[in-house]
Amino acid sequence: MTVDLFAGVPVRDYATAAAWYEVLLGGPPSFRPNDVEAVWELAEHRYLYIEEKPEHAGHALQTVFVSDFDTRIAEIAGRGLEPAERETYSNGVRKAIFHDPDGNEIGFGGAPLEPESVGDEQ
After folding, report:
1. Is residue 115 part of a domain?
2. In terms of residue numbers, what domain contains 35?
3. How confident is the model at residue 117 (pLDDT cuts 50, 70, 90)?
């Protein structure tokens, strides 16, 4: 069985939000199903989409867990967006939180850092 996930983010102004998400996600949407939605394929069968729904804007909470956390956050910063917050949980999992122009929270999570090897002790 194949399952596709579409994680939605309601926004007030489609054009403003689409431009911001292009910077965050590194490119234009994968497709635009209509005049008020844009969809980015983050990985096979996994999509993040924005939809102009002003009455619901600002309430989304999405986290995308990635294997290239440090690289991804650095690339986003290189495009001019810095996380509003950074967290490291007690188990070492890391999270960088961005807020779109409406206040929606888009987080990127990453696995704990590998402990640095301590050389050979004999």
Report:
1. no
2. 5-110
3. very low
Number of domains in the chain: 1
DSSP-based helix, strand, coil % in the chain, nearest 5: 20, 40, 40
DSSP conformational letter for 54: G
In a domain, 83, yes or no: yes
In a domain, 120, yes or no: no
Q: Which secondary-structure segment (H or E) carries 48?
A: strand 46-52
Give me the residues paired with residue 93 across strands: none
**What is the reported pLDDT for 118?**
43
Residue 43 pairs in a beta bridge with 46
Considering only CA atoms, which of 50, 54, 57 is closest in space to residue 23?
50
Residue 103 phi/psi, 5-degree rounding, is 95, 0
Look up residue 116 and give its two tokens: 């640095």
